[in-house]
Structures are given as structure tokens and as C-alpha cells.
Design goal:
Oligomer: single chain
Distance between the termini: 56 Å
Number of strands: 6
Shape: elongated
Order of helices and strands: HHHHHHEHEEHEEE
Length: about 290
């Protein structure tokens, strides 16, 4: 923007000089012709000089006009680019917030598992924490490299959305697809990936409602839900979707971690009737 401003002042100065010259030419008296010049009418030579100078002045004015128009167009382009950059930044922030809480817009059943967990942790990948939790150092490093590649993929997606002026819904949809592809690729290692990136990866039973399926099955406060109907569970939205997708009247297996051991409880398909917290816990080996 600094270069454009300097160009503007330079052009403005040139315009003022040209206008001053025009004013001087228009107000001065034309020179008298030399006495006794043969074949010359009075004032003819002076009129000829004035016309030449006026033609030059018109050409200079036209050049300045075109230069000012080009500068105005350049400033307009820079302003539009700045506005687009700000809008894209807002869209990306909204999409990132949606990725961190994907189940916000989903309807909650009448008797549902409610989440009262903490907010996602800071960005980054803590490979040493995975090693401390029991993961092999080579596996922790491999997951970190995949995390770095995923960050580049997200940056490229954001850049493409900005250049092609994507609507917010498309950016959000593409971001979900990118995250889903990574989860499918990692499989059960998604648990360790969430833990290393500071995200909650476990549901903790905070309250078991009386006369509920969870109460009848023997759920206890503090149980950590690991899987529902043989599928790993990492957030409350997944538990709601899975409990609604099974066959009504059938029984499903729910794995829970209790006192460091994995237990399997059988419950009828449908809401458990338990209140859960979304918490971060060390990953469990597949």
C-alpha cells in the first residue's frame, strides 16, 4: 500500500504542475510578430506557438488522467484483496470451531448422554506424552509426521478456499471430509492422535439415572466408555449416533474401563440413560 500511496502523490504533483503551466499559458499575452515580416499577418507567429504548447498540455493532461485511473484501479484491487483475506480468516475460524465441536448442531434425544467436558487443548503434537503412555517411540514419531502432513493439508485447503472464494458451507464440508479421511486412515490410532493433540478422547460416566438401561446393565460413576456395539467412541455425538443406529429391541455390547480394566456390559439398543463428561485420558492399545 506504501508504494501505491507514493505513486499517488507523485501523480498528483505532476497534475498540479501541468495545471499551473496551463493557467500561465492561458493568462499571458501572445507575443507580437516581428515588424516587417514578409507574408505574416499580425499575431500569426504567436498564435502558432500557443497552439503547439496547448497540444502538448492536452497530451500531458491525458497521460495524467490515465495514470490516475490506473492507480485508482490498483487501489480498488488491493482493497478487495484485503477484504477477501479478512472474510476468509473469519470463515476459517468458524470452520475450525465447528471441527472442534462437530456434534453441536445435532439434536439431543429426550434421555441423552450430555457432555460437560473441558474445551479442546492447545494446538501441537506431544509425542513424548505418547511414549510416556506406553506407545513405542517409532510409532509416536510416525504419528507426529502424519500430524504435520495433516496441518499442511489443512493450510492448502484454506488457501484453495480463499483463492476460489468458497462459501462457508463448502469449506466446512471439505474440512470435515479431510478430518474423516485421516481418522479412517489411522483407525484405532485415532485415540493416540487425539490425546497427543490435546483433544478429549474418552467419555466418563458422571451420573447413572435411576431405572435406565445403564443402571440395569451395571454402569457405575467413573466408568470410561471405550466402545459401543464394537465401534470405538471418542465423543458424545458418536455415542448418540451409534445408539440410534442399532436395531430396536436388540442388545449391544458396551466396553468400559473401570479401575484400569476393560469390562463389557450388555445394554438394550437406545439411550443409555447416563450423563457423561468428555475428558482426556491416555490412549488404550488396540
Amino acid at each position: 500500500m506504501g508504494d501505491a500511496t507514493r505513486r499517488w502523490f507523485a501523480i498528483a504533483g505532476g497534475v498540479l504542475l501541468v495545471l499551473a503551466a496551463a493557467a500561465a499559458l492561458l493568462t499571458r499575452e501572445p507575443p507580437s510578430p516581428a515588424a516587417g515580416s514578409p507574408g505574416s499577418a499580425p499575431g500569426e507567429a504567436g498564435s502558432s506557438v500557443t497552439r503547439q504548447e496547448m497540444e502538448r498540455l492536452r497530451a500531458d493532461l491525458e497521460f495524467e488522467r490515465l495514470a490516475r485511473r490506473a492507480l485508482a484501479e490498483e487501489v480498488a484491487l488491493l482493497r478487495r484483496a484485503l477484504e477477501a483475506d479478512r472474510a476468509a480468516g473469519s470463515e476459517w475460524a468458524a470452520a475450525a470451531s465447528a471441527r472442534e465441536s462437530p456434534a453441536e448442531s445435532e439434536p439431543t434425544p429426550a434421555i441423552a448422554e450430555a457432555s460437560t467436558g473441558e474445551k479442546p487443548g492447545a494446538s501441537g503434537f506431544d509425542a513424548p506424552a505418547l511414549v510416556t503412555a506406553g506407545l513405542a517411540e517409532l510409532d509416536a514419531q510416525r504419528l507426529r509426521e502424519r500430524w504435520e502432513a495433516h496441518q499442511l493439508e489443512k493450510l492448502e485447503l484454506s488457501n484453495l478456499a480463499l483463492r476460489e472464494d468458497w462459501p462457508r458451507k463448502r469449506l466446512r464440508r471439505e474440512s470435515f471430509a479431510l478430518e474423516g479421511a485421516l481418522r479412517a486412515e489411522l483407525g484405532d490410532e485415532w485415540d493416540a492422535y487425539l490425546y497427543a493433540t490435546g483433544k478429549e478422547n474418552r467419555l466418563r460416566v458422571n451420573e447413572v439415572l435411576a431405572d435406565s438401561a445403564a443402571s440395569a446393565a451395571g454402569f457405575e460413576k467413573g466408568d470410561l466408555i471405550l466402545s459401543y456395539d464394537r465401534e470405538r467412541i471418542y465423543d458424545p455425538g458418536e455415542l448418540r449416533r451409534n445408539s440410534a443406529a442399532c436395531s430396536t429391541g436388540s442388545y449391544v455390547a458396551v466396553e468400559v474401563i473401570r479401575d484400569g480394566n476393560v469390562d463389557t456390559l450388555r445394554v438394550p439398543c437406545g439411550p443409555l440413560g447416563a450423563l457423561v463428561d468428555h475428558v482426556k485420558r491416555p490412549p488404550v492399545a488396540p
